[in-house]
Amino acid sequence: MGRYRDDDDDDDRPRRRSQGSDLGGLDYVVPFRNGMALASYYCGVFGLISCFLMGVGGIFGAVPIIFGILGLMKAKQNPEAHGTGHAITGIVLGAIELLTGCGTIGFILYGIFTSPVR
Question: Which among 20, 50, 17 is positioned nearest to 33, based on CA atoms?
């Protein structure tokens, strides 16, 4: 007896559907069912790039943090959605962006208020 059932087999047992999708495991790599986790990840990555290129762009780090929290909540409610890693990555990158943006603004304000007045 092999792993697969023959078509002429008279077995009337109900068949179980596979729990995974037909994507061949790709949904573990890219969580298609958890859009918030993906949005958090992409906003975090592209926001971090713009943060270092433009300087003050880090003040928008709250967006990936919010999306990441919503993505974690969805992954917890629906285990088939996956995306926990993407959501956590987005939260961490968003926090780095916020800290970088706040630091940049802090240095600018420090420079303004401590400069000698002529």
Answer: 20
pTM: 0.68
Pick from 94, 52, 55: nearest CA to 72 = 94
Rounded to the nearest 5 degrees, what angle is found at the Cα of 28, between the Cα atoms of 23 and 29?
Answer: 95
Distance (Å, rounded) from C-alpha 48 to C-alpha 98?
10
The helix or strand, by DSSP H or E, that contains position 110, with its residue range, turns out to be helix 84-114
Interatomic CA distance for residues 44 and 95, integer angstroms: 9
* Tokens encoding 16: 């179980």
pLDDT 10s digits, 22-62: 555 555 566 667 888 888 988 888 888 877 776 656 678 88
Cβ atoms of residues 51 and 58 within 8 Å: yes
